[in-house]
C-alpha cells in the first residue's frame, strides 16, 4: 500500500531500509530509558538479530518518509485471527507531527481482522496515543491471555505490558468471541 499525506509518504519498507529502520527504532526507544523496568531495557533497545527475527516471524514494516528521509516505522503482523500493530516508532526530532497517526491509520486500513496493540504499561504517552486513535485497553486477565496467545515475548514483558484493542475486537469479545 502506498499513501501520501501532504509531503509525508507511507509505503512498505524495503530490505534496503533495514539499517535505517533499526536506527529509527533505537532512536525513538530512548523514550523508554529509565521508564520501563531496568531489567527490560537493552542497549541498543533492538538488536539487528532481533529485528531480523521479527521480520522472519511476519512483521511487515511500513515507512513514513519525507522525500528520501525515513522518519517513522510501524509493523503489521497477521497472527491467527487478529492483526497486530508492532514496533511503532517515530524519530525523536519528528514526534508530535502526525507521523505516528498517519502510519497507524494506513496500517489499520490494511487489517482484515480485529487489531490488537501491545505496549509498555508505563509508556503512558503511547497508551494515550492509541486511545486517541480509538483503541481501548483490555483488562489484566484478558491482556495476559492475549499476549500469551498472539505475541512471542518474555513473561516479564507480559507482566509489564498493556494490550489495546480496536472496536472490532471489542465488539467480538463482548459477543462472546
Walkthrough of the structure:
With 177 residues, the chain is an alpha+beta fold. It has a single domain, classed as Gcn5-related N-acetyltransferase (GNAT) (Aminopeptidase). The protein has seven helices and eight strands; from the N terminus they run E-E-H-H-E-E-E-H-E-H-E-H-H-E-H. The chain has helices at 18-28, 48-56, 99-110, 124-132, 140-150, 155-159, 167-174; strands at residues 3-5, 8-12, 60-66, 69-79, 82-90, 115-120, 136-137, 161-165. Strands 1-2-3-4-5-6-8-7 form an eight-stranded mixed sheet, with helices on both faces. The longest helix is centred in the middle third of the chain and has 12 residues, at 99-110. The mean pLDDT is 90.
Entry summary:
This protein is α+β, with helices and mostly antiparallel strands. Helices cover 37% and strands 27% of the residues.
Helices and strands in order, then pairings?
Layout: E1 3-5, E2 8-12, H1 18-28, H2 48-56, E3 60-66, E4 69-79, E5 82-90, H3 99-110, E6 115-120, H4 124-132, E7 136-137, H5 140-150, H6 155-159, E8 161-165, H7 167-174
Parallel strand pairs: 5-6
Antiparallel strand pairs: 1-2, 2-3, 3-4, 4-5, 6-8, 7-8
